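The protein record minuted underneath.
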Amino acid sequence: MSDPSDLLLDTLSRYAGWSGPIIGLLAFFESLVLIGLFVPAIATMIAVGGLIGAGVLDPAPVFACAIVGAILGDWVSYALGRRIGPAIYRHRWLKGQQLAFARARLFFRRYGFLSVLIGRFLGPVRSTVPVVAGVVKMPPRLFQTANILSALLWAPALLLPGYFAGGKLAQFDLQAEHLMLIAVGLCVVPMLLGWIALRIASKPRRVRTV
C-alpha cells in the first residue's frame, strides 16, 4: 500500500470520530474528473472496511459519507461537462487524458444509462463517463438516478470485503494472505457481475453522439 494510504489509515485510527467526513472526501475526489485517476480508493476503502470489521470505526457514518461523496463527485464532473461542453476534452489540465475520454465516449455511446451505473466500477472510465454524460446533456434526472444507484452499490462493494476479512472471517484463524484473497474476491465478484449484466443487457438505447 502506498504511503498516502498508510497515512490516511493511521489518521482514521487516531481520529475515528472524523472517519465519515474523511472517507466522504476520499470518495468525492475518487469520483472527480482528473483527480480520480490518481486517488488509490479501492485498496484504501477495502482497508477501511477492515478497520470497521475490527471495531475501530463506526460503520454508519463511513458508509453514509462514502455514498454521499461518490454521488457529489460524479455530479460535479457531470456539471462541468454540461457547462463547458466538448471544449473540456481540450482543456489544458486534461490534455493528457484524451485516451481516457475517447474510451469513455465510446462506452457512453454504446451503453448510455448503464455506462453511468457501471462505470464507477471500471477504472479506465470511472471518472470520465460523468463528464461525457454532461457534454452530451444527458437529462439530469436520468443521470442522477444512475449516479445514486451506482454509489449505493459502490460503497458496500468496496467496504464489505475488508469488513468481513478484518472482522467476521478472523474467527476462523485464516492466514493474512488468505484473508487478502477473500477480500479481493469479494470486491471483484460484484464488479464482475455488474459487467456481465452490462454485456447481456438489451439493445442499448440510442443517445446523441459526442
